[in-house]
Design a protein that fits this description.
27% strand, FAD/NAD(P)-binding domain, 8-stranded mixed sheet, alpha+beta, 387 residues
Length: 387
Amino acid sequence: MKEFENIIIGAGIAGCSLAHFLRKYKNSILLIDKNEDVAFGASGAAGAFLSPLLGKPNAFKDLVTKALNFSIDYYKSYFFENIINCGTCRIPKNKEDEDKFQTYIPYMDFEYKKFEEGYFFSIGSIVNPYEICKKLSKDVEKLFNYEVTKIEKIDDFWIINKEYKTKNLFLTTGADISLIDEEYFDIRAVWGQKIDVITSTNVEINYHKECSLSKAKEIKENRFLVSVGATHNRFDKNMDNTSYNLKLSNINNLQHNEETKNIMKNDVDKLLKKANDIKKLENIEVIDIKIGARASSIDYFPMLGKLVDSKKSIEKYPHIKNGTHIKNENLVMIDNLFVLNGVGGRGFVLSLYLAQELVENVVNNKKLDENLTNYRLFSKWAKKQKR
């Protein structure tokens, strides 16, 4: 049985960011993924746009603002060749959206100016998902095309498929939370689709209205590469017979069935229609389509840190079910099991910041923001158990 001090399961932007910051302190790290490479799931299907969250002050907006400032600075400092800081024009969808924007003006965290039919934020950027994930994880050992079907705690170690053992186990598996046997840990899979098109239209900055449109990259004379993302699909029916199946690997390399193809075609049409409502794209050729499932928590905040052992905590404090408040530090935790999840559609904004926070918590015992921890999810769930 091969042993590592730290094992990370999931090689999207969350797992790769975690590997990067963990590597600053530790040498014994294994990064595992069921796909054949990094960023082959939702991260590879992401537009990877970095832009502000607009709105009145609240805890989630504060988190996104803090994470955006951190991530932009970090990408520029260490991965400058993979970030394009060209600014983003945010265009209101309608009169109601415009009116909302006006109410947000006193609470803007970033500089902006009126531009075309919207508002230009100079901080707006885009990164290359694959290159960023590849570089973040470059100094750690990797195991690809490997499906983890079972994790179990034996003595002081986590055992993976009875083949690998580790002191610290980190789960960054996104929408597939089948390895976590805790009811309160709830994720909604939001399937998104991104397309790359070649067009004769030179899009000079990023745009966002009902979809996001990237700055164009000239690939030959009068031909430009533009990314358009993303759709939002929540499926109510069982999709196991399609490519919209969380258990599948390398989904964007599969031969899709007709149901999948029809959904993807409809989403291409939607994206092109929304893109053309921003900028008229001439002479379009769709050259790439990627799908992936974003992981969204029930309250939209990320899930970070250790997991509460719900069974043992309720056995110890049965009155939790009656709404009795128990201090977080008194709850029973699952030892040496950590998660970074629920980053939704802002993975490339949030993950670097959250990974750094988690590593500092694990290595240096830095306290995590309780808005991000799993205590909040357990507490809400436990109070419902009496009913």
